[in-house]
Write a structure and sequence with these properties.
Keywords: ATP-binding, Hydrolase, Nucleotide-binding, Transport. Its EC number is 3.6.3.-. This is ABC transporter. The chain is built from 9 helices and 10 strands. The chain is α/β, with parallel strands linked by helices and about 250 residues long. It has a single domain (about 1-85, about 150-240), classed as Rossmann fold (3-Layer(aba) Sandwich). It has a 6-stranded mixed β-sheet, sandwiched between helices. It has a 4-stranded antiparallel β-sheet with strand order 2-1-4-5, with helices on one face. The relative contact order is 0.16. It binds adenosine-5'-triphosphate. The site of adenosine-5'-triphosphate has 11 residues, from strand 2 and helix 1.
């Protein structure tokens, strides 16, 4: 469904994403992880249309999408959340969801009906008429997911939707993502919460210093020495230069 082919993104002299290739198949939940500054958000932004790659291609359902605007990729069925929830301060939860619903539904009544459905699906049904400013962090994250769902996507890109959530809230979010997948959505999520990634992902790709260093089943990836070194640094007492995949 999503094919990222040797994508590089440079900011001046800095290579934020370095020739990364990654495929996400229909119905999969794929996690994109890596230490701070690894290039996750940059790759995510390239996929979602915030900015074009310096090199490489991104295909969604076979169609080239690199360089397209976020609203264009969204129209094609690829929707994203933002790391910092973009709530509209003056709106209610329902109105905020409705903004996304208008993408494919012109009539107000149809957009509202979809918004009610989506709000219920993410557990915000009771908060439909609540101002977005009154939401808790966990509810704001759910609203962010709801706003992407309202665009009726085939695939969603989730950016740090577990950040700031407590254990119970993380589990509720995991349940939500599983439910979405069971309903046919494909999911790519960028996440710092490794235990959440381990619990939910069919496959995990790991970035370090912009390059992909691993891609596979979660348990395999977590045991990969290069991944361990990227997160924890090289084993104590060894010369960094001798440590394959070290974080030097
Ligand atoms: N707009 C930009 N201009 C210049 N450099 C940038 C820009 N965006 C990101 N970078 C740099 O690119 C590199 C990758 O950053 P990125 O935010 O993609 O990493 P990340 O894996 O998402 O990190 P984190 O987990 O901390 O969010 C970093 O060195 C960062 O400073």
């Amino acid at each position: 469904m999503l094919e990222i082919d040797t994508v590089t993104k440079r900011f001046g002299g800095l290579v934020a994403v370095d020739a990364v290739s990654l495929t996400v198949n229909e119905g999969e939940i794929v996690g994109l992880i890596g230490p701070n500054g690894a290039g996750k958000t940059t790759l995510y932004n390239v996929i979602a249309g915030t900015f074009p790659p310096t090199e490489g291609t991104v295909r969604f359902n076979g169609r080239r999408i690199e360089g397209m605007r976020a609203d264009e990729t969204c129209t094609l069925g690829l929707a994203r959340t933002f790391q910092i929830p973009h709530v509209f301060a003056s709106m209610t939860v329902g109105e905020s969801i409705q903004v996304g619903a208008f993408l494919h539904r012109r009539r107000r009544s149809a957009a509202r009906a979809l918004s009610l459905e989506v709000a219920a699906a993410v557990g915000l049904g009771e908060r439909f008429d609540t101002p977005t400013t009154a939401l808790t962090t966990a509810e704001r994250k759910r609203l962010e997911v709801a706003r992407t769902l309202a665009t009726e996507p085939q695939m969603i890109l989730l950016d740090e939707v577990m950040a700031g959530l407590n254990h119970t809230e993380v589990n509720l979010m995991l349940d939500l993502v599983r439910t979405l997948r069971d309903r046919g959505l494909t999911v790519l999520f960028v996440e710092h919460n490794l235990s959440a990634v381990m619990k939910i992902c069919d496959r995990v790709a790991v970035l370090d210093h912009g390059a992909k260093i691993a891609d596979g089943l979660p348990e395999e990836v977590m045991e990969n020495p290069e991944v361990v070194a990227a997160y924890l640094g090289p084993p104590a007492g060894r010369d960094v230069a001798e440590t394959e995949g070290g974080n030097a």
